[in-house]
Amino acid sequence: MADWLTRTFGSTDAVREQRLVRVTNLATLESTVFAALRARRPIESNGNGPSTSLRREIEATAGDPFCHPEAETPADPFGRVRGRRMVSGANAAQADAHHAVLVFDEHDPLAFDADLVGDLFATGREWAERARATEPTAVQYLLIWNCLWRAGGSIVHGHAQAILGRARPHARLDRFRHDAAAYAAATGSDLVLDLVALHRDLGLAVEGGGGVTILAHVVPAKEHEVVVIGQPGMDERDPAFGLAVGRALEALRDRVGVRSFNLALWRAPLDAADDPFPPIARIVDRGDPASRPSDIGAMELYGSPIVGSDPYDLVAALPAAG
To answer: Do the bridges between strand 159-165 and strand 280-285 make them parallel or antiparallel, or are there none, so unpaired?
Structure first.
């Protein structure tokens, strides 16, 4: 296999001696295996061929239902919420007590900027407040954005989703908050603030301005995970937070080459006015839209994520304040 190994991985020595680094957050037990060679393993294409560009695929879907959202998506009982660059519709396949799609005016899902991200946070929050007015016990708000099919987006047209539930938050946020409470009880310290301090010490943080910090996550869920953390008690509609998230997304698209991603906004329950939990946006690359294999397998589901990208390369591409 020597010739094939050399063509694929650069040399046979690169395969004979491989360096793996496993990082574990002892407070949350999030763990990642960094294996640089995994990023260079051969992957079969989807058969479309190199001449089929992503741009053409996106343009070919123009005219889908989200291109005419007010005619081709249902409205919530309280009506639609119109932002500057998007409009809400009820999700036909509900995932919680209240579930909306936030459909962008622009069809191209990659034609976003920091202004659109700020509008997304404002529009999503307005929808959540209106939904809560119809059911005051629904206070667990989650905003998600699945960009393109690699990230689970079933419609190409740019859109995000807003979800409002009762009782407990969704599992990943619930677990993080549980771990933060246990960490505070054991150490007397704040887990989120200590995570920011840790990333600063490691050289994996940049200041986004207005007290917002952008992290190249040291225990990423998958490739190129960025975590944007606001100040304690900050509202996600604060311009500084939206600007930092928007610039981080622009950097992932323009400097790193990310084309498909997942984004989630974590925040305190809507009825917890005195809760200091800051807004947190987590963004992760979901790989090349032209690639056939999924980037998530049994290791990610039942073991530990395996990541080929280096967070120190990622932090060099992230934007600082200014």
So the answer is: unpaired
Could you give the angle at the alpha carbon of 239 between the alpha carbons of 233 and 219, nearest 5°? Answer: 65
pLDDT, tens digit (0-9, with 9 covering 90-100), for 73-113 = 999 999 999 999 999 999 988 999 999 999 999 999 999 99
Q: What whole-number distance in Å separates Cα of residue 215 and Cα of residue 54? A: 29
Superfamily of domain 54-317: HIT-like (3.30.428.10)
Mean pLDDT of the chain: 92
Return the structure tokens found at 181. Answer: 């409470």
Q: H helices then E strands: how many in the chain? A: 10, 12
Side chain identity, residue 55 = R
Q: Which two tokens stand for residue 298?
A: 């049994």
Using a 10 angstrom Cβ sphere, with 0-12 exposed, 13-18 middle and 19 or more buried, the burial of residue 35 is middle
3-class SS of residue 24: strand
Query: In this model, does residue 322 exceed pLDDT 70?
Result: no
Q: What is the pLDDT of residues 248-281, one digit of tens each?
A: 999 999 999 999 999 999 999 999 989 999 999 9
Name the one residue in this structure whose structure tokens are 């939206």: 242
Contact, 226 vs 205, CB < 8 A?
no
**Eight-state DSSP code of residue 279:** P
pLDDT given for residue 48 in this prediction = 37
Residues 240, 150: Cα–Cα separation, whole Å:
29
Per-residue confidence (pLDDT) for residue 228, from 0 to 100: 98
Strand order in the sheet with 205-209: 86-90, 98-104, 159-165, 140-147, 261-266, 280-285, 226-229, 212-216, 205-209
CB atoms within 10 A of CB 133: 10
DSSP 120: H
Q: What number of residues does the chain have?
A: 322
Q: To which residue do tokens 């667990």 refer?
A: 140
Rounded CA-CA distance 159/143 in Å is 11
Sorted by sequence, the CB contacts under 8 Å of residue 188 that are 6+ apart come out as none
Q: Is the pLDDT of residue 46 over 80?
A: no
